[in-house]
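Changelog excerpt

This revision adds worked examples to the README so contributors can see how folded entries look when concatenated. The first example is reproduced verbatim below.
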Amino acid sequence: QGSQHYIKRIVGVPGDTIEIRPQQMIVNGEVETEPGIISVMEQEAPYMGYTAQGTRAVELPEKAYWAMGDNSSNSSDSRNWGVVPERNIVGRAAFVYYPFGHHFGIVH
């Protein structure tokens, strides 16, 4: 039986405090503005920004990470699963094959 893998963006590392408010992600008390952290789809219709999905502020313990999907309102990620243990991170995405458009291709 195979294992399930998810492609997600790591947005919080051990020691960070993460909070999701509608359309914003707050990392260590600061609204995140890094394009690579916010989303590859930020500011593109019909992207709606981050949705809280019941998340409260979470401080990440040692060897624990916070993962978010780019399609925030339809993504199953750390808002649902909680923190991701370091041992569960297997690697970096190398290629985007869907959705087609300017996001298609090699991941930088």
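The second example, added in the same revision:
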Amino acid sequence: GHAIECRINAEDPARGFRPCPGLIERFSAPNNARCRVDTHLYGGYRVPSHYDSLIAKVITHGKDRATAIGQMEVILRTMQIEGIATTVPFHLALLADPAFRDGKVHTQFVENDFLPTYCSPSLRDADKLKAVRPSPPYR
């Protein structure tokens, strides 16, 4: 089998992963056998600025890499975290990357290969952003 874990942080990927504390206006996460969501969030919770920005860990498992990635994409698109920016859009873009999907990654893949494209000023126009970043509720 294969497992994927995404660590969801209260950070804004569009602004260099700047911390994004604030009020969680709404939170819901899938509760099924296909995933595990470890979190302390609830609607009305205020993410403080003084601590680690980790707000959830999401783990999926599948018979192979493609299945685990597909399940993670469904879970992240279903999860709702409203009120603050999170790293959910970043994870969805990474999961969609062809090199990541094919397992052609290394320990410096995100920093050296993925982030320069993801954070590129040429991706700032609306049409390109829609291709790699989902629409709200992911802020």
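Reviewer comment on example two: Residues 124-139 have pLDDT under 50 and may be disordered. The beta strands are 2-9, 11-12, 18-19, 22-23, 26-28, 35-39, 46-47, 54-62, 80-82.
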